[in-house]
Amino acid sequence: MCSCPISSTAVRAGVPHIVAARPEQGWALLCDGSIVFDDSGELHPDGSVVPPRRVPADRLAAAA
């Protein structure tokens, strides 16, 4: 993934920043054209996909 220019207030250089977000829908558009989802999945401009990193159900904590 290529990086894009970021503001001088950014903590790390070379990290794409959010240019549009729809938190009610669970996604954000980055300046490099990638879309990131709340479930940790990603869709890149070249069509490549990063699947969400889901935790197996048996590893989830249960409320008592």
Spell out the blueprint of helices and strands.
Blueprint: E1 18-22, E2 27-30, E3 35-37, E4 42-43, E5 49-50
Antiparallel strand pairs: 1-2, 2-3, 3-4, 4-5
Quickly describe the structure.
The chain has 64 residues and is mostly beta strands.
The helix/strand order is EEEEE
**How many DSSP E strands?**
5
Structural class: mainly beta
Tally of helical segments: 0
User: Which outline best applies?
Assistant: elongated
Order the strands across the largest sheet as they lie in space: 1-2-3-4-5
Largest sheet: 5 strands, antiparallel
* Percent in helix: under 10%
Distance between the termini: 42 Å
What is the oligomeric state here?
single chain
Average pLDDT number: 82
Describe this structure in words.
There is one protein chain. By secondary structure, the protein is mainly beta. Helices cover 0% and strands 25% of the residues. It contains no helices and five strands. It has a five-stranded antiparallel sheet with strand order 1-2-3-4-5, with no helix packed on it. The relative contact order is 0.16. The mean pLDDT is 82.
Summary tags:
25% strand, 5 strands, mainly beta, 0% helix, 64 residues
